[in-house]
Write a structure and sequence with these properties.
This protein is mainly alpha-helical. Helix content is 71%, strand content 8%. The chain contains six helices and three strands, in the order αββααααβα. It has helices at residues 2-21, 39-48, 52-78, 88-100, 103-118, 127-150; strands spanning 25-29, 33-35, 121-125. Strands 2-1-3 form a three-stranded antiparallel beta sheet. Helix 1 (2-21) runs antiparallel to helix 3.
């Protein structure tokens, strides 16, 4: 069990990092023009075009919260045998983060569906989306394993 937790603790941040820098989606317009933005490029573009509020929200929800969740899972996994389980953050905050963690992947799927149905552009998933989704799924699995290993809530 500890070996699986260790593998997941390495895989989740690695895939998250790839999900942030690799292209999420490829938009093709008129067969000649295409764009393949990464999540970081999207945030930077929002900021540069004057949508600072939206850029901050996307940064918090799509970057800061997943990093915070993975960091908290790592702390919980490291302190597991030392009486560190059962902390308020792990029992109350991390489950809330888990509930919203696939929202970004869903939003990209909606954008792809909208682009395909509009007829103006074609959209295709790229490796960044799959890495981001993989990180989200792995961190959720790791959270479940850690909760199971910590035993029943007191």
């Amino acid at each position: 069990m500890r070996q699986l937790q260790a593998i997941l603790l390495v895989a989740a941040p690695f895939l998250l990092a790839l999900g942030l820098v690799l292209p999420l989606v490829r938009f093709e317009k008129l067969y000649f023009f295409s764009e393949t933005p990464s999540l970081l490029a999207i945030v930077l573009s929002l900021w540069q075009t004057g949508d600072g509020f939206l850029a901050v929200i996307v940064t918090l929800v799509s970057i800061a919260l997943p990093v915070l969740k993975i960091f908290s899972l790592a702390i919980e996994a490291i302190s597991e045998g030392k009486g560190g389980t059962g902390t308020f953050f792990f029992n109350h905050v991390v489950p809330q983060l888990s509930r919203w963690s696939m929202m970004d992947v869903l939003l990209v799927a909606i954008v792809i569906a909208a682009a395909k149905t509009s007829g103006l552009a074609s959209a295709f998933t790229q490796p960044g989306l799959w890495c981001y989704a993989g990180s989200t799924i792995i961190s959720g699995l790791l959270h479940s394993l850690l909760r199971k290993a910590s035993g029943p809530k007191k």
